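Input sequence (378 aa), recorded before submission:
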Amino acid sequence: MNTILDVNRARMETPASSHLIHFNNAGASLIPVPVQRAVAAYQDAEYNLGGYETYDRHIADHKAVYDKIAELINGHSEEIILTSSASHSYGIALQSLRLKPGDKVLCCYAEYISNYMALLLQKKQGVEIVLVPNDSNGQIDLDALDKSIDGRTKLISLTHIPTSNGLINPAEEVGRIAKRNGVIYLLDACQSVGQIQVDVAAIGCDLLAATGRKYLRGPRGTGFLYVKKNLLPRMEPPIVDGWGGDWTALNDFQYRDGRSRLELFEKNYAALLGLGTAAEYAATWGMKNIEERNCFLANKLREALVAVKGVKVRDPGVRRGGIVTFTMAGKDHAAVIQDLRKKKMHVSLSSGVSARLDLGMRGIESVLRASIQYGGGD
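Predicted structure, token format:
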């Protein structure tokens, strides 16, 4: 099935797609023209006026970034926290919950390296980390998840779309289990925001971590964290400054109310305006259209790869998205990447050491990853 998405327009607004086949959108997408212009215009203003003065002139634009991101994921502006990456978002969310020794966190085999290391930090502080097994389709086992919850379970952590394979985990079903059991639900949407339709209300997550540089097509060094409004008051970040807290007495301070308690004063405001523009740009296409186009192209690629001798597609799952992973028998995957770059085709490598739970469990040393994007030069 194809979609109503205007491919010619997408390519025109992604000039690099005229000379590149960019299948590395799970790493960093090609930035579209409106995003580049927004960042450049703001940097030019800072160059000519000064950083603080430029910020003062663009306060309404900065506030609008929160609105644009909230609209994209069906949240509220007050629930959006601006960060520098998905790892930053996930880490600050996890640490701000202030889990205690004996608390239990349930996580999945699709966890990203940064997420799992953040969980291991919690383990060193006495928090129990429990891996929920996969089902026969390679996605999180919902029955096992439900049975793993007890009175000590304080958090469920789920990676929506792994970095090392193309499955889409059943996020909404996990949300229903979390709600039924009264457990906080943290979703890593690093690869899903901008790739597929993400609706925090439908998913039922309390926290969601995302980045700008991947499928959302924003600048590097940008990200955001969604925190459900009723959860914000209990979040206590390990780092605070005058943006997120009030110095109430010589030896005391209080976190501010609302989203600012999880942010810091210093930000790359040009890049964050680009992030807002990227969210607005995705909305103009319609995330359902983007999702259908990405999945359509990825399925075509999988079908083509299956027909190639020595190539094995490695994507598990019932539902699969725009990330296609495969191995090539007898080939050095790193060398394949360099050879393709010479031909102006970009793919990437997921190694077992960065995906020990996923690839390690499956006995795979590394996979080649072709991550498809509607505007990336297909």
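Checked by second reader. Residues 139 and 253 are 44 Å apart (CA to CA).
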